[in-house]
Amino acid sequence: MAASKIAVYSLSDLKNTTDDALPNYLTSLKFKQSHALTDVRLALSSTAVIIAAITFYADYKLGWDATKQGTFWAVIVYFILNGALTFWIWGVEKGKVFNGEGKDGALLSISSSTQKHSPIYYLKVKTSASITAAPTTSEISSSFTRWFDSDGYFVAKPFQQWLASEIAMIGEADPKSVEAAKKVREGYVELTDGDVKVVEKNEPQGSGSGKETPSKKIRERSRKNLKL
Amino acid sequence: MFAALSNPRQSLTQVLNFALVLSTAFMLWKGLSVATDSPSPIVVVLSGSMEPAFQRGDLLFLWNRGQNTQIGEIVVYNVKGKDIPIVHRVVRKYGGGDKPLKLLTKGDNNMADDTELYAKGQDYLNRSEDIIGSVVGYIPFVGYVTILLSEHPWMKTVLLGLMGIMVVLQRE
Amino acid sequence: MHSSLVRVQNVFGYFTTVAFCTAIFVALSVLVTPQHPSASIQLRNVQVVKGRPHYYSPKKEEYAHIKFDLDADLSSLFNWNTKQVFVWITATYPSSSPTAPPSQAIIWDSIINSYSQLHPYTPFDAWKDLPIVGTNKVPAKKSKSASKKKVAEAEAEPTPGLVRLKNSKPKYQITDVTGKLASQANVTLELGWNVQPWVGALTWTAKEGQDFGRWKGIRGGKSEAFDLPALKGKSATQETVIQKGTPKPAEAKPVVP
């Protein structure tokens, strides 16, 4: 998918593009995305903006003296809402990119993060068989070079293969990607996606599920690839 | 970038982020207004009548909670019926306590006091009605941007447009 | 950095932060410098005459014309953050209504510029005396007498803040809001000032005893109480005149400690 080009050196661009692609991929596999968290955040923001708009309009129409008391309360409520919103984004949402359920009511929750000046994409995956079952968490990571080429285009297939091979629930829903990923791991040199040829050298790609972070060698090679 | 707009929640989040930035700026201004009890807690000096103390473009911080204005204080007032705030120094003070506090002002750089500037028939300013604050702090030059914006209103549109474009193009 | 726009943004943001921190530092640094102003004011002569507020005004009001001596040392008010000091003398007298605080009217004021205000530093100042690059010209040698004169001038520049006025005429003739000022009792002349900084908070008169950390209240600064005479012309003996050479004993304070 020759999508729009992004600046390869911008960590935020890399992360945002990847974050956008993840729920698209999962919904195409018929995972149901739950928007509850996003909706709460939207509700908080909208209320705050509406309060500000009302204050602005009242001040515009009635002047300062008449609206002094009302403005006082509006300011207080606004900053309480703002604080709640900040807490929500920082504490509750915590970088969540996907929250939803797969087949048979199994819950899946994924949040992403990156570290400054490092081209590694970290994912925290929480799965549970049902609402009452205990959740299992795992952390996986990969360098962005796996699914971005040096020109800055996002290549979907390697990304999907990585997700499918690392996260069991996704792998069950998308066995084809798991197959393809296995083939790459076993030494096949090329994998193609339409007319974009991404050549992968024969090197150990995966970081298994668990707390492994990519080895220093892979990180250095990725950094050289990105010409940082 | 534009592919994201097909997702309604995504575009709503972006719009709200932009609106939040504007609203927070506005509410901070209103909060400052409430704290200082002045409709305009920060003013920009427009004229040279207080030179060499204040030059055009200086930023002044006002405080309006001291009803007991002293002589020599620099106050900002609106002439009754006009909307131009004037920054001058108090040179005479009568009344106070139970009686309304009456003040006469004069610009440092002016020869005469402000009697001619006041409304017809008004010889003194009333502290509680006419004064919107007295100057407590000052930063030089910073306000010159506001003067430029008010004298060339097209710059305001350009600035807001630039800000809007930048927020839409960036995701953060 | 991945784009010039981001670079520009970062540089501008850094500049703003540094400028802001410098301003805060300079504004707070004034608290460290000690202040010890002192002054003595004496009444010399006062008359009350009838006059009009403006040329075309129909009503007549009584105006007081107060001459005074002033000896003030406000040099300690000047620090590196002082832009100018605005100093004034008010005539303070009890208000016509008993519940109100005393009425005040400024009879004289003056702006004392600081050295930095009169000689603002620009980066070009350092280049003025360099030989002109790229030509064979050398800046004309200043004659010895001219440079000597400059040195003398610089030395003769007085320390800002020392004010000495003898039998000075007032700048303004004052009246009361009621229009009547003749025979007003218990009038005092008081010195006040307003320090205007380059950046930060403005400060006003510190009354006697009102110490604030290293800043002492003014020593003296108030004249003896006197009464305003009746309208001039009613009786020739009503004029209050203080003879030269025998000034009323004021609170005698040395000018410079």
TrEMBL record, chain A:
It is a multi-pass membrane protein. The keyword Chaperone does not apply. GO terms for biological process: protein targeting to ER; signal peptide processing. Residues 216-228 have a biased composition (Basic residues). The chain crosses the membrane at residues 40-58, 70-90. InterPro entries: Spc2/SPCS2. Belongs to the SPCS2 family. This is Signal peptidase complex subunit 2.
UniProtKB/TrEMBL annotation, chain B:
It is a single-pass type II membrane protein. The keyword Transmembrane applies. CDD domains: S26_SPase_I. Residues 35-94 form the Peptidase S24/S26A/S26B/S26C domain. It is an enzyme of class 3 (hydrolase). The gene is SEC11_2. The keyword Magnesium does not apply. This is Signal peptidase complex catalytic subunit SEC11. One of its GO terms (cellular component) is signal peptidase complex. Pfam families: Peptidase_S24. It catalyses: Cleavage of hydrophobic, N-terminal signal or leader sequences from secreted and periplasmic proteins. It is found in: Endoplasmic reticulum membrane. Coiled coil: none annotated. The lineage of its organism: Eukaryota, Fungi, Dikarya, Ascomycota, Pezizomycotina. Keywords: Endoplasmic reticulum, Hydrolase, Membrane, Protease, Signal-anchor, Transmembrane, Transmembrane helix. InterPro entries: LexA/Signal_pep-like_sf, Pept_S26A_signal_pept_1_Ser-AS, Peptidase_S24_S26A/B/C, Peptidase_S26, Peptidase_S26B. Belongs to the peptidase S26B family. It comes from the Eukaryota. Its EC number is 3.4.21.89. Component of the signal peptidase complex (SPC) composed of a catalytic subunit SEC11 and three accessory subunits SPC1, SPC2 and SPC3. The complex induces a local thinning of the ER membrane which is used to measure the length of the signal peptide (SP) h-region of protein substrates. This ensures the selectivity of the complex towards h-regions shorter than 18-20 amino acids. SPC associates with the translocon complex. GO terms for biological process: signal peptide processing.
Automatic annotation (TrEMBL), chain C:
The lineage of its organism: Eukaryota, Fungi, Dikarya, Ascomycota, Pezizomycotina. Essential component of the signal peptidase complex (SPC) which catalyzes the cleavage of N-terminal signal sequences from nascent proteins as they are translocated into the lumen of the endoplasmic reticulum. Essential for the SPC catalytic activity, possibly by stabilizing and positioning the active center of the complex close to the lumenal surface. Essential for viability. It holds the Pfam family SPC22. It is found in: Endoplasmic reticulum membrane. Keywords: Endoplasmic reticulum, Membrane, Signal-anchor, Transmembrane, Transmembrane helix. GO terms for biological process: protein targeting to ER; signal peptide processing. Belongs to the SPCS3 family. This is Signal peptidase subunit 3. The chain crosses the membrane at residues 12-32. It is a single-pass type II membrane protein. One of its GO terms (cellular component) is signal peptidase complex. Residues 233-257 are annotated as: Disordered. It comes from Heterodermia speciosa. InterPro entries: SPC3.
